From TrEMBL:
Superkingdom of this protein's organism: Archaea
Sequence segments annotated as region (Disordered): 1-49
Residue ranges with Basic and acidic residues bias: 12-32
Protein name from the UniProt record: DUF1684 domain-containing protein
InterPro entries assigned: DUF1684
Amino acid sequence: MSDSTEADSDVDVERWRDELESKRDEKDDFFAEHPQSPIPPEERDEFGGLEYFAPDPTYRVTATVAAHDDPEVVLMETTAGREMRYLRVATLEFDLEREDDALEDGTYELAAYQLESPNEEPLFVPFRDKTTGQQTYQGGRYMELAPDRDLADGDELVVDFNLAYSPFCAYSETFDCPLPPEENWLEVTIQAGERFE
């Protein structure tokens, strides 16, 4: 499932759901068996798979991009008390429309970052929402977006919260993970992606 700078309101929901479930199965296999799994080795035999919210296409949104030509440095605190330097390279504005909770309909923004050192890394979008610390990991969740070209103002980018995941430090204290800065704390419930209770 690749991210694109094109809007895709005509997405094939069944195909999207199948691809999402396949990705989740692959991740479960990695966590259960791979030497680099964040699950401590002594706990892998008991690992029965990650917890997820049910796939929900209403959390797959099209965001409008505001690109930052001269990105500001953002210092992100980490779970180990350090700071990591990121560049705020874009702001993503999107609408959420929830049929079952009209009170949370509205327009929201998330900042997208890249590490300060030059690289070709995907856009890093850490965030908190109203599930954080209750249904999802207390340190927030992450998304990575890989647009197919450099972003410009007014571009549209698919943001699929069903791909939101918990950082490795949710599973082991040996990892040090950046915490979402306050500008990416959403005052909305995002019941999509990985759960962690």
